[in-house]
Amino acid sequence: MRRKLLPYCEERQSKTDMIVLHAVAYDVTAAIKSFCDNKVSSHYIVAEDGEIWQLVGEKKRARHAGVSYWREIEDINSHSIGIEFCSKSLGQKKFTSAQIKSGIGLIKKLVKKYKIRPENIVGHSDIAPRRKADPGKAFFWKELAKEGVGFWYNLSDAKKINDFSVEELLEIIGYDTKDICASAYAFCRRFLPDKVTEVKEVTELINNVGRANDELLADEKFLQVLRAVAYKYCSESKTPCKI
Ligand SMILES: [Zn+2]
After folding, report:
1. What is the crossing angle of helices 180-191 and 220-236, to 10°?
2. pLDDT tens-place string over residues 152-198
3. Which of 91, 99, 183, 203 is most buried as measured by Cβ atoms within 10 A of its Cβ?
4. How many CB atoms lie within 10 A of CB 12?
């Protein structure tokens, strides 16, 4: 691991119980320059060759989440460790196998160290669905879940949780439901990436993260996967809901 500590951090206001995963469309050097220009930071950044850099000590509150929300928490920077993954396509194309290997190793270590619960491992787009599209539709959520990190779903669970609206299902998982179309699209980015349109230019994705339309909100596959994921969170998270 390499270290280049940035001063853009402060004391945490709570214990560390979340991990936020990001993608950044630069290599490590350009990403650090951009962080310095904007006085932001993240605890770790994983280069395309798999090398991990530490930018902020874990005890400190780094500045990576911005205005965000997850399961009633708003100061997510105080609660979380932020990890960036370099990706020219901003996570629209597969991450390198070296990155996946290092990323899984780092995340597993942190989960164990801080006893981070699966429902608290999130993407930036999950906690800021109107503003952020990273870590992107090609992020390795499924591989992480196979390693016991975070949740994936069993489609057969969908039928166990029928009587809820899209809004209620998103809320059960943890999303902010002020903007259902944005949160539903963030949900797809993570659990149903085939429903997310690929854009050519990364700048396009930065300026417009996209939203679910009425057709997607009524799509049978979307509803099934949403129910199956909500069931998983409902039955296995620390704050289970009544089904
Ligand atoms: Zn991000």
Report:
1. 80
2. 999 999 999 878 999 999 999 999 999 999 999 999 999 999 999 99
3. 91
4. 17
> What is the model's pLDDT at position 56?
98
Cα–Cα distance, 73 to 17 (Å, whole number): 11
| Structure confidence at residue 241 (pLDDT) | 74
Question: What are the residue boundaries of the structural domains of the chain, listed by start?
Answer: 2-236
Query: Catalytic amino acids?
Result: 84
β-pairing, 60-62 vs 9-11, is: antiparallel
CB 24 within 8 A of CB 45: yes
137-155 burial by CB neighbour count: b if 16+ within 10 A, else e? bbbbbebbbeeebbbbbee
- Confidence check: pLDDT of 243 > 70: no
19 sits in which H/E element? strand 18-24
Could you identify the residue written with the tokens 């899209």? 166
Ligand 1 centre to CA of 143 (Å) is 20
Q: How long is the chain?
A: 243
Q: What one-letter code names the amino acid at 98?
A: A
Query: How remote is the CA of residue 40 from the centroid of ligand 1, in Å?
Result: 11
Distance 189 CA to ligand 1 centre (A): 14
User: Cα(11)–Cα(96) distance, rounded to whole angstroms?
Assistant: 34
Chain Cα centroid distance, residue 210: 16
CATH superfamily of 2-236: Peptidoglycan recognition protein-like (3.40.80.10)
pTM above 0.90, yes or no: yes
| Rounded distance from Cα 213 to ligand 1 centre (Å) | 24
